[in-house]
Amino acid sequence: MIRSKSTTVAAMALALSFGAGSVSANDRLVHDGEFMVDGMIFGLPEARVYTEDYSGPPVVGDYLTAVPHLAELDYDGNRTHEVRMDVISQQIEIAPGKFYNAWTFGGSVPGPTLHVREGDRVVFTMKNRSDEPVVITEPVAGGSPFFGQIRANPIQNNQPAVSAMPHSMDFHSGTVAADDKWRTIPPGVTIEFEWVANYPGVYMYHCGTPSVLMHTAQGQYGAVVVSPKNGFPTDDQVDREYVLVQSEFYLTEDEYNEGYRYDHEAAMARNPSHVTFNGHINTLHDQPLRANAGERVRLYVLNAGPSDTSSFHVIGAIFDRVWYEGNVENEWRGMQTVLLGASNGAVMDFIVPEEGSYKLVDHEFADAERGAAGTLIAGPRQQ
Ligand SMILES: [Cu+2]
What we know:
11% of the residues lie in helices and 39% in strands. The chain has helices at residues 5-17, 145-151, 178-181, 212-217, 264-268, 283-286, 365-369, and strands spanning 35-37, 40-42, 48-50, 59-60, 64-65, 80-85, 87-95, 98-105, 113-117, 121-127, 159-161, 170-171, 190-196, 201-206, 221-227, 238-249, 251-253, 260-262, 274-277, 289-292, 296-305, 310-314, 319-324, 331-335, 337-340, 345-351, 356-362, 373-379. The model is unreliable at 1-28 (pLDDT under 50). The strands form seven sheets. The chain has a six-stranded mixed sheet with strand order 19-16-21-26-23-24. Strands 3-13-10-6-4 form a five-stranded mixed sheet, with no helix packed on it. The longest helix has 13 residues, at 5-17. The chain is mainly beta. The site of copper (II) ion has 6 residues, from loops.
């Protein structure tokens, strides 16, 4: 194979920067056309679009979890992650008795949370299975920790649905040509592409097919956490960590079918029917977060929007440290509230002051009253 000069130079630079003893930066670092700038990798191979006979688990990957869980990075250095999230339609509940036919990545709203380390590579596969009913709440072999966590969640009572639509995937954590990797595929078609986690952060992923507002509001979003390669300065002190995704829903009663349906007029007017943490107005009331007095709690918060800001606040606590967008270079201290625009994220550490009940809210109270509220229950101090 003839390799271009720039690739050879990049391969040499990589060999130098990842010396003996470190886990190999990437098994796949020799693609033609890849290059490095400031230690980051660009110029990834073109997306592959094909049809496959696949009816296996719609979510595959050891570092994919259901909110509020985050997978532990139990490896040193960097690795390549083979990740699958298929697009499937599901009837889901977002408030007691309020069901609608969601468009999802992997079957939940928000979709699975992916955890990787800065410098890791993700080889991503997605089949558009919106045209077939897929059950996600039965045991699935060879899948991901995601399924066990979904099944253990009493609020998740998804039913398979069919809503054949073209869809796509846009990872904010990736730096690629969007017209290639984030392209739209019709039902029955699979896309495969790669991205490298060049920057640490708390990122959004979502469907980018027009109307992006509609596809996102229908449920196609989730979080990617890219942990910094040298960690955060308080990593050793963190006792608990949770992922929270805030988002708005725009639902109205369905005139033709039982249940509710997406209301584009309400979405354009930014008039949500519900605003939630982790996809249901009762998620963090029925299953409050847990901690003990004196512990350091870390929240990975993403505001998925699609259109609203979040003024994230914990009543009775102050954020000891906030890393805006989840980048260790963006450190703030002593924050009462963290303002997150649509698709902004942050890592927030706080110390639990004493035993008691703490409310987590969007301090834009019209949104808190629409559902963006939850509870953390703190037990007594443990010695
Ligand atoms: Cu879509």
